[in-house]
Design brief:
262 residues, alpha/beta, nine-stranded mixed sheet, three-stranded mixed sheet, 5 helices, 32% helix, 23% strand
Length: 262
């Protein structure tokens, strides 16, 4: 049986060296090709297609505001940074960005839909459909019909949810909410569309709602004693344990008797 003769060590070293050189050349070739592909002008972003909620924007404003913030091409562009650039635009709540080969971006926008004005700076701050506070020009919308919500920072979702819970209760007696406030001490206060201020007190949605229902079910009986209707309501305080206090337009409980008052 013939045994193959081992190659001399210098021949083996030459073969190994040749293989390594070939691998190096191959890697360099791939690197140069990759660099050429990454830098080629054909992959520069040329077009942005936008769809979804675009009632407050158009392609011209988007290009003017977003394109200068983008860096890189189809392969190197950061989708996260691009998303943030779109979401920094007024009215844009959410942006989903996708690449389209070889040099396009496809962006789906979701806008804020204002449901209320927020806080004291009602010229720019609004609450959207999920209770988030956002800033935009209020003059872009018809804001006269929107209620005002106020509360501590970070509590806008809770205030919006309470508004949604209370509004149907007021609607049962043909009343609306112009303003709902959550005070720093956690108490709820309503200004109705009839300019009546109602102190609702503290509690959960169910507790505050039940307190309001009880009040609205009985207030007509109370006001009728003074030949008034619920539209005469000026203020009410529901924070009392076993009842509530009322102030009615044109009605006073003060009686002059010399210098004495009851």
């Amino acid at each position: 049986m013939n045994k193959s003769t081992p190659l001399p060590w210098d021949i083996r070293i030459m073969n190994i060296t040749s293989g390594l050189l070939l691998m190096v050349l191959l890697c360099l070739s791939l690197g140069v090709s990759g660099w050429w592909i990454l830098r080629h002008k054909m992959f520069d972003i040329q077009e942005i297609s936008v769809y979804g909620d675009v009632s407050h924007h158009n392609d011209v404003t988007l290009r003017a505001n977003v394109m200068p913030q983008l860096s890189g091409n189809f392969f190197t562009l950061s989708l996260r940074k691009t998303q943030l650039a779109f979401e920094a635009m007024p009215w844009v709540r959410k942006a989903v960005v996708r690449r389209e080969f070889p040099n396009r971006l496809r962006v789906r926008l979701e806008e804020h839909h204002p449901v209320a004005l927020w806080g004291t700076n009602t010229d720019t701050q609004m609450v959207n459909q999920v209770g988030q506070v956002f800033e935009a020009n209020v003059e872009d919308i018809e804001a006269d019909s929107l209620p005002i919500l106020t509360g501590p920072e970070g509590q806008s979702v809770m205030v919006w949810q309470m508004y949604q819970h209370l509004l149907p209760i007021f609607s049962l007696v043909s009343m609306g909410i112009d303003k709902l406030e959550l005070t720093p001490r956690g108490s709820w206060r309503v200004l109705t569309d009839g300019d009546a201020t109602i102190e609702l007190g503290r509690g959960t949605q169910e507790e505050v709602g039940q307190r309001l229902k009880t009040f609205l079910q009985t207030v007509a009986q109370v006001t009728s004693r003074y030949q008034r209707t619920s539209t005469s309501l000026l203020a009410a305080d529901l924070r009392h344990t076993n009842g509530y206090a009322l102030r009615l337009r044109g009605v006073t409980t003060l009686v002059n008797d010399g210098n004495k008052k009851p």
